[in-house]
Amino acid sequence: MADRNPLPTADVVIEVGDRVVLVRRKVPPPGWAIPGGFVEVGETVETAAVREALEETGLRVTLTALLGVYSDPARDPRHHTISTVYVGRAEGAPQGGDDAAEARLFGEGDLPSPLAFDHAKILADYFRYKKTGRRPIEDYILSVLTPEERLDAAFRVAEAAFKGTNLTMKDVENAVKTIRGKANATKK
């Protein structure tokens, strides 16, 4: 493995109503998994995600969000992979196909065991994203920035958002001063 580059994969957390589709793998490593697989030569990761979802579940998926990129060298016991994980929506009943022995719908409270690869972590990230609207990278950024850096980042986002509107930078600066004043008042 040391002399090979990581292999790109694409997975999709497929939402059908308020449940997600998982597939039981036919081939090792065993367990339940988020539908997905290897990106083929000449294929984008988005195309691979949609193709793999169709092959493994029979569902036509519309991608709705990028959840994250997972690259822990130990995530796949066969070799180092880097997975781009999307959230997607579909309708209908999933049916196992290709290398999926079966495909079923699950909720957060009734996930099957065992889950393959690092899919327990990915699903935990997905359910947290659905509750908070924050992707894993956003949680990471919040964990490493100081409160002052977060405020500065929010100021830059606001500045970019207000470009092209009738609001002036003075309006934005006044809003930030008001927020800073309230934040400082709560510290006392």
Structure report:
It is a single chain. Helix content is 38%, strand content 25%. The protein starts with 6 loop residues before the first strand and ends with a helix. The radius of gyration is 21 Å and the shape is elongated. Strands 1, 2, 3, 4, 5, 6 and 7 form a seven-stranded mixed sheet that branches. Strand 1 and strand 2 form a beta hairpin. It contains five helices and seven strands; from the N terminus they run E-E-E-E-H-E-E-E-H-H-H-H. It is an alpha+beta fold and 188 residues long. It has two domains: 128 residues, Nucleoside Triphosphate Pyrophosphohydrolase (Alpha-Beta Complex), CATH 3.90.79; 43 residues, no CATH class.
Topology at a glance:
Blueprint: E1 7-16, E2 19-25, E3 32-33, E4 36-38, H1 45-57, E5 62-70, E6 81-89, E7 100-106, H2 119-132, H3 136-144, H4 147-162, H5 169-187
Parallel strand pairs: 1-6
Antiparallel strand pairs: 1-2, 1-4, 2-3, 2-7, 5-6
Helix pairs in contact: 4-5
CATH fold-type name of the largest domain:
Nucleoside Triphosphate Pyrophosphohydrolase
- The strand count comes to 7
Globular, elongated, flat, extended or rod-shaped: what is the shape? elongated
Give the number of domains.
Answer: 2
**At CATH's second level, what is the architecture of the largest domain?**
Alpha-Beta Complex
**Percent of residues in helices:** 25-40%
Unreliable segments of 5+ consecutive residues? none
CATH homology superfamily of the largest domain: Nucleoside Triphosphate Pyrophosphohydrolase
Helix/strand class: alpha+beta
Helical segment count: 5
Mean pLDDT, all residues: 88
Order of helices and strands: EEEEHEEEHHHH
Radius of gyration: 21 Å
Largest sheet: 7 strands, mixed
| N-end to C-end Cα span | 55 Å
**Proportion of residues in β-strands:** 25-35%
CATH class of the largest domain: Alpha Beta
